[in-house]
């Protein structure tokens, strides 16, 4: 198989995996919200920052170094496996022993056993780190998908069953542990690699020299994405954190799902064309357009339908999450559009700009999060996040333009039509929702409104954008009946 076909296959399998697992998680959360209290979600969310912080140091950047490495891969893999296993054991012990301190910090004694059980996920997942890295190195995403999907189905299924049986927060905890256990176990059935009992200090040093930069950048990102949860959990009620966690999760779907797939492809693509400025600029704006074609309408629909969606899908008791979800919809939209700018910095030889922006963002959060909470609770935090994301976007555009020599007008040319089309489509969806009052159940009306949004948005973009028409025609040529038979005859 050629490299081009390998990359194409990898993208398809990654996309399928991401879409299915996230959809499954979304549905599971809808069901669980019917059986669990907001405080159960909040209690699990309180344990996540400590566990995620420890997991950030679990593999010491060794798996990324292994994927990058070209020589002595087998010896390096063996060294990485035993190192990750040892570091994970140490981190599990730290997570277990630190649980009372974390519980005291959040003034939540029930957090102690929850964190101690969740700490097992570090130890369990360590067995899969190197096998997964070797599959990724060979672009064998197809073999990686089965363990991920099976773990998601069985783990979420276990959570739902336990929630129905009245296990409360433990249904979430045991489900999360089950996901790690199943994924780590199944990965060994799809990879031929087996570790040898050997360890090389030289290979470990080489892996660490590369990996320390990965860990450093991850530390800043972790701090930025978790410090709001820490402040909300510290100064507000546990149930309030549950509302905020729901709002953040839904509102950030464009940033966390769409761009996750694109980012895996665009950095190496930008690197290949970095010497051709015109091509670099063209590829960047094309990627920006394709991402925003999806993320803009999703974000506008999230803002427009947050009230209907939350009350119908989760229940009226979740209504405190509505306004934060709408404000965080702005944050999620900006994050999704700006995601590729980081790849421009790296491919353009300015990776330090990522660090500068992250440090500035973290500093602002540490200064203003507490006043935001005291002023408006989770609404204040959400408003602050929306404002700071817009400022970050302006800074990132300015810096990206210095590399690709572009103008602000190009961004307006791409984003303004999509934004206007999205607003019109959401208004049409609202009309469908309001005018079917009494004709069907509210959740059915909400689904019909969603279909209307998709149809109207697609129709507008088809009418005003020739490139969208070209994309649609190319997609039809690929899937149309008889296409594959015709290709075979031509061959």
Description of the structure:
This protein is mainly α and 491 residues long. The chain has 2 domains: 1-235, no CATH class; 245-478, no CATH class. Helix content is 87%, strand content 0%. It contains 18 helices and no strands. α3 (62-68) packs parallel to α6. The longest helix has 53 residues, at 352-404. The two termini are 18 Å apart. The model is unreliable at 484-491 (pLDDT under 50).
Helicity level, as a percent range? over 70%
> What gyration radius follows from the Cα positions, in whole Å?
23 Å
Helix-strand topology string: HHHHHHHHHHHHHHHHHH
Give the CA-based shape. Answer: globular
Derived from helix and strand composition plus strand pairing, the structural class reads: mainly alpha
Features:
disordered C terminus; 491 residues; single chain
Provide a brief overview of the structure.
The protein is mainly α.
List the topology elements.
Layout (H helix, E strand, L loop, with lengths): L2 H33 L2 H19 L5 H7 L4 H34 L4 H8 L1 H18 L3 H24 L4 H22 L10 H35 L2 H14 L1 H21 L3 H38 L7 H26 L4 H53 L3 H28 L6 H23 L1 H14 L3 H8 L1
Helix pairs in contact: 1-7, 2-4, 2-5, 2-8, 2-9, 2-10, 3-6, 3-9, 4-5, 4-6, 4-9, 6-8, 7-8, 9-14, 10-13, 11-12, 11-13, 12-13, 12-15, 12-16, 13-14, 15-16, 16-17
